[in-house]
Amino acid sequence: MSVEILAGKIVNWMKDCVKDAGADGIVVGLSGGIDSSVVAALAKRAFPENSLGVIMPCHSNPIDEEHARILADTINIETKKAVLDTAYDELLRIYGAGEDTPRLALANIKPRLRMITLYFFANSRNYIVAGTGNKSELIVGYFTKYGDGGVDILPIGGLVKTQVRELATYLGVPQVIIDKPPTAGLWDNQTDEKEMGITYEELDRYILTGLARPEVRAKIDAMNKRSEHKRRMARVFEE
Questions:
Q1: Which domains does the chain have, with CATH numbers?
Q2: Which of 18, 39, 131, 195 satisfies CB 3.0 to 4.6 Å to 151 for a cystine?
Q3: Active-site position among 137, 148, 192, 202
Q4: Is 137 a catalytic residue?
């Protein structure tokens, strides 16, 4: 399938999702990364007058906001900015977090605050929330449960990272965003591949072809199994 046809199919699917929900448009978080840029560009195509990008810095690298604004200007999408630094700091105070608090427990507060923020704007406008997770990340559970995983639709959830890059080029996402190392921005110098312990090239190859070095295959399979609870609704006990 050509990238042009693929983009058109996703745009039409997004329109159907909004219609089915009785909503009026789409809101998406703008992180300055390639995934959010692609979803925002698709949202803008689907709803030229009813799409919103929300920039949500939370003790973030300033370059992320700079790239988010470059993307917003490029595709001419409406934006809102919500600085979450104070909310994050206050939650740490309330929780009594200290130096012995695990880094991931602290980091995951950020995407969960962003989820709350996106739903505020979605509820305010009768929009739905478009997530930015791709298939590569979903399969290994590389997302925060009820954080960036707390969304209504996943427009690129069926595409591996390689396909997302191809789509980004077609949609006119600025090259500086396409070329930057993927990161969730959870802490300084954090990158997706470093945290996962595998490259997207290795991950995508295994997903698409089933081929991988034994150690890579074992790692991906283990990550997939361990994160199964993230990809389904909460289990319900039935007598």
A1: 3-231 (3.40.50.620)
A2: 131
A3: 137
A4: yes
Active-site annotation holder among 4, 20, 24, 35 = 35
122-135 per-position pLDDT tens digit: 999 999 999 999 99
Q: Provide the sign of the torsion angle of the four alpha carbons 231, 107, 112, 168, taken in this order.
A: negative
Q: Say whether pLDDT at 153 is over 90.
A: yes
Structure tokens given for 147: 């954080």
Please say if 78 is a catalytic residue.
no
Report the distance separating Cα 219 and Cα 239, nearest Å: 36
**CA 227, CA 232: separation in Å to the nearest integer?**
10
pLDDT tens readout for residues 161-178: 999 999 999 999 999 999
Other C-beta atoms within 10 Å of 54: how many?
24
The burial class, CB within 10 Å (0-12 / 13-18 / 19+), for 64 is buried
| Rounded Cα gap, residues 131 and 14, in angstroms | 12
